[in-house]
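User: I'm putting together a teaching handout on how multi-component assemblies are represented. Below are the sequence lines for each component of a complex, exactly as they appear in our records. Could you produce the 3D structure of the whole assembly as structure tokens, so the students can see both representations side by side? Please keep the chain order the same as the input.
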Amino acid sequence: MKSDVKNNAIGIFDSGVGGLTVLHSIVSRLPYENTVYVGDTARVPYGTKSARTVTQYAIGIGEFLSHIPVKALVVACNTASAFALDALRGRFDLPIVGMIDPAARRAVAASKNGRIGVIGTVGTVKSGAYGRAIKHISPDVEVLAHACPLFVPLAEEGWLSNDIARLSAQKYLEPMKRHGVDTVILGCTHYPLLKEVISEVLGEGVTLVDSGDEAALDLEGLLVDRGLHRKGGGASHRFYVTDTPDRFVEVGESFLGGRLSDVSHVDIP
Amino acid sequence: MKSDVKNNAIGIFDSGVGGLTVLHSIVSRLPYENTVYVGDTARVPYGTKSARTVTQYAIGIGEFLSHIPVKALVVACNTASAFALDALRGRFDLPIVGMIDPAARRAVAASKNGRIGVIGTVGTVKSGAYGRAIKHISPDVEVLAHACPLFVPLAEEGWLSNDIARLSAQKYLEPMKRHGVDTVILGCTHYPLLKEVISEVLGEGVTLVDSGDEAALDLEGLLVDRGLHRKGGGASHRFYVTDTPDRFVEVGESFLGGRLSDVSHVDIP
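Assistant: Of course. Below is the structure of the complete assembly, with chains in the same order as your input.
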């Protein structure tokens, strides 16, 4: 019975292609796990939408994934993690990993001067979720959060290191740098593609925390603890999108860092 | 009876705040008309979504507006006009104005060398709707279409004339300029906010066609023809959004060029 559950996939979802960077982190760390990814491309982006709307979408996707079934759920979207994690945990009897807490813990551990920057979508920043998670661990840490709306289209255009990317990073990050943060959380799954230019602007002394890498680490811990860790065999990776697959495939491969096959359409209410 | 219909509002809808530039054009041209605006902010943007999905959303909004009732419908979104206009015309017995045809006619009239550029979202450009509309009027015209995904967040950030806006405009528009277009259609309702920087890059010899201005002119013609034109009295302007109103109000006022009041939430299936 237990061995059957081990073979169940890990369910991962995001509003679109961004969560593929998280899937990349998960597959790198846990190469034998089967995965099912849902990209809610008919309703992307979540970053400018309200808590109520995003929670409703997340629960719909959770229902779909839990019926596949899956053995764990990864909310590979910072906005959905900020808004909907409690509602998901109340509804589904599954190990659930979000983006916020793992990255917050890593940032607190990494910061030497107690000044942490958080960058993300308007929704994630407005939610204040990273600030709360960080202060829950270490109340004296100072948190500076800033939304960077141009980073998502820059990543999707593949403009990762041109003048426009550099100037946008400067405009968004200079105030944070001047304030002396020594650690910055990449609080949006699109941002790892811009890691180089972000790091260049912030300078070598600043540690970048990738929320996807930290979530993958957390997921590994949960699976090992519960005896659900799959340690060998071939792994399958399936993808569902709520809009037509064409653009998801076109843009998504640079996010995944690999070929996207087995992508189907699904309607989720 | 006819006078009652005259007092009915004009229904205008868009995926979000962009259509407020069209509303601005309509109110400038038709100051005595009542209006009801729907911004589908829970599902914005339409620009990266498929024809099927956008058509389904547009019909839902058409149902909502036709029950208010309204005396005419303006699809103040280029993507929805490109994808859903025929479906809307088949379904609703109302004068319906889209963004594509009025701008296409104006561009053909304005161009002297028969080279017309079209800029818009990925969805609008991929649909090829402007090219078809232009070639339907004048088959020999050469049409160059290009998507400019950064323009929407630039407009929403209010970065209308800084280095980032200028460099993005150069990167998107230089190939079109080199090709010698003498007329460019602003085929996305966000783009009029960036008119200055677009014009600066393209140069003085290039005519910009604002799809909202042309749609307002078309709407006036339709209302006058059918005796539905309201010629005096105070006008009311109501707004509905499918997500919570806060961000719509925050970002929308620069698009409307005025105060946004009377904004309510509505659920549209």
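A couple of points students might notice: Chain B touches chain A at residues 41-45, 48-50, 52-53, 122, 149-150, 152-154, 156-157, 159, 162-164, 167-168, 171, 243-244, 246-247 (CB under 8 Å). The radius of gyration of chain B is 18 Å.
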